[in-house]
Amino acid sequence: MSDLVAPTPARAGEAPGVAAAAAAAGAVGGGARPAVAELAGETASPPPATFTAVINIKCPDQTGVVAAVAHLLHGYGINIVETDQFTDPSSAVYFQRLKVDYTLMTIGAANTGVMEQALRELAGRYKMEWSITYRNRKQKVAILVSKDDHCLYDLLIRHRSGELDCVVSTIISNHDKLRNVADMFGVPFVHLPIPPKDQGGKRVQEIQIEEILEKESIDLVVLARYMQILTKDFCDKHWQHTINIHHSFLPAFMGAKPYHKAHARGVKIIGATAHYATTDLDAGPIIEQDVTRISHSDSVADMIRKGRDLERLVLARAVRWHLASAVLVEGNKTVVFMS
């Protein structure tokens, strides 16, 4: 590794004449003080670009892995800005999330492939699974909906306000009901009804969805109350980047009408669950859950209203954490480094 390391280049000094111009400006009495760049005959330049990434690591817990990763990054002049780590004592698996700044990487910020190859070699020695997400490109999101609009509105408002760091590229629905919501936020809307079984049924529609995902280079699919059970083919391909919101505190009351089931059971709390959409119905790795209390006087309508509030919040958290590369999956569980 050391043969690839070069001294960090010195930063450019101050432009000639700037300091003298600033001193002269300080001696001028009265009137508005001219900008330094104007006195020096220069145009103020924008701040230099920074390049950041998130590296996620999962491997058997062992001595030296933290030092090895830090040494590798330091050797390339990469600065570790944030780090979170956790060791699961029951499985002896180590998890780490690192946010790094590679702006001053010694081999040049454009040559990340060399650094990635070094990470691959390190991963082989430590039986490590790893991924890297470059933060200078916003991730592209597709939202799938049916008829309920509360989660869709919430995601679009949060995106517009800057809470969700992504590009909402498309909204896809098996119904045409929510097109006006997409138009309101300027997001392309695609209506893909499910054809009858004798014309291919759900799988034909999912192939059309997949064509859009590929064409738009979608990074994350959000099922914002998309009331269709995805096929095994779709889940097997996309579950690691497909988030579903289930209107129940899983694993209880899976499937349809969970609030009716919960009301009939006389529950004292209800919840919402955001999880990755695997082939097991409503049973994928859980990213986030939350609950609220229920009174004996609450009707089904009251429970649905309270549940919708939870669904908005829980789904938004899960999407934000996924976009931040803060979720690591282990089996049917997740480690979430909440930010």
From TrEMBL:
Entry keyword annotation includes Hydrolase:
yes
In this chain the ACT domain maps to 54-137
- Tell me the domain of life: Eukaryota
Please name the GO terms of the biological process aspect recorded for this protein, alphabetically. 'de novo' IMP biosynthetic process; one-carbon metabolic process
**Listed GO MF terms:** formyltetrahydrofolate deformylase activity
Signal peptide from the UniProt entry: none
Name the InterPro entries for this protein. ACT-like_dom_sf, ACT_dom, Formyl-FH4-Hydrolase_C, Formyl_transf_N, Formyl_transf_N_sf, PurU, PurU_ACT
Please name the HAMAP family in this protein's record.
Answer: PurU
Record's protein name: ACT domain-containing protein
